[in-house]
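Entry 14. Two folds queued back to back today. First construct below, sequence then structure tokens.
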Amino acid sequence: MAARAVSPFHRTPPEVVLPELEVSVVLLEEEETPSYGTASLPSITADVLAFLSEGDMAQEEEAPPEPPARKGPGVNTLLVGVDELLSLGDVSSALELLEKAEQLDPLESRLEGARARCEQAQRAALEQRLGSVKQVPRLKLRMAELMKLSLDARMGFLLSRIDGHLNYEALFSVSGMSRMETMRVLVQLLDQDIITLAPR
């Protein structure tokens, strides 16, 4: 194999030697933070405490005393009022007094008799308002007008049974309510001018 001729102009570059650098790390000393002492809070003296306590006592002394609670009527007074209202024909007010008496003392033995007298007076007033049980009620309003009224479920059900043929006595049987409750609803319908009595 023939040797390659070296050009006289070709020179090998000299090696560059870099001087070694010494790297020194200087650790900065942590500065000391001066410590400041916390100033002690002044303590409350006995004179100040005495002054504050005297102020609280003065406020308590100046406050007017609350008036004693007024006691309501007892059960005996309420029951007497029930009988007086029944004698005047005011059954609704008598029932209100009776309910208050029942709340005060539910075990009062006279409550049962007072309740029976109220129900008897109420039944008599309802029967007088309705008249004869043989009378036949009929609707006074059309169905479209009834739909606009705010009627509860009892009124709506009873109105669905009023067809111009059933009398009061028959409605008591098909209403699904007690006789007393059915009479109450019928009186409400009469008072609101929703039903009327069919001519005989």
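Second construct, same run, same settings:
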Amino acid sequence: MSSPEIQMIGGECLESDHGTVAANGSNAFVRLEPGIDNIVSQRDGKLHNSLRAKMALSHSGKDNDHLEETIDQHLLGTKYLSAGTKYRPVDFSSKAQYFTLDVITDIAFGKPFGNLAADEDLHHYIELMELGGNIAQEIFAERFDHERKERRDMLRSFIRHGLTQREVDQVVVLQVVAGFDTTAGVLRATMLYIVSNPRVYSRIGSEIATTLISTPVTDSEARRMPYLQAVIKEGLRIHPPAAGLRFREVPASGDTLSGYFVPEGTWVKHNLFGLMPDPNLWGGDAKVFRPERWLNAEPEQLRKMEANLNLVFSWGKWQCLGKNVAMTELNKVFVELFRNFDFTVVDPQSLGNYNASIHITSDFWMRITKREPRM
């Protein structure tokens, strides 16, 4: 007999008497090797906490003091520009993937795949995801034998904090898969919403132009730019990077969710496709990309909105470890793109998108020109 299931649409339903929905994870299907658990599939709370503790510092930046510098090195350059009658259409869907894949591999291994520089999927990783595991394994197998002490990257942090080579074997593949296409999906979708909305395009450009920031912008500076943050939040809301159903198992003795008792062993799921366009939470224009909703909401409403948006990264001890890295990438890339370039969508009918839990986008063609100073 299968376990009972509850699917939640409203994020408020996920608040329980114990402060969390469940003590046990449930993603056993994410095992990469039969019988071997990783940070996503490990359902035992104590074992999960132990593994998470070994990985946490690598993702927070505390064990990787080159995090921002590494991201800065991969921000898009000028080689994709059109000028005057010189027309060079750019498929932004692939360039976003090249950027996020180079960033996550550089942060993780101290060695990017090099897709942006070559302007191609060098290892066919994007085309053949499983090949990336072999590439990653070659890199970290060498590092276990000859640890590079000059680079404080994620892999060195994993080794320093006691992960075995077999554990790292699991972590690295998941890290690359989860860390590049999810962020690329948010980047692509948010770019589309910005460049197709003159009000948003103008306002984010104005904030960037009138705010005193470094070159390139630092993460802390970007976090103090209110409209930029509203744009990023709205992009995450209206186009969640990983939209498959996520579920947790109610622990022994059961739990109470929004006043209802839920027995032990029940799977509790939240449905982002149902939650993020819910007009009861976001207003009657919930399906509209409107960053201003984050700036104009009353404090209590904003608290609810923030709490529900956080479900994009899961919650509690199951929250995505890569959240800090992803947000740093988004904070930097939008500022540098709209500070330096202008974008025009080309042939919007060709744009393709489908959801395989992670959004897969293709043929997002744009014309990119150098941004001229505004008078």
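Quick look at the second one. The beta strands are 5-8, 90-91, 246-249, 255-257, 260-262, 267-270, 341-345, 352-356, 358-362, 365-370. The radius of gyration is 21 Å.
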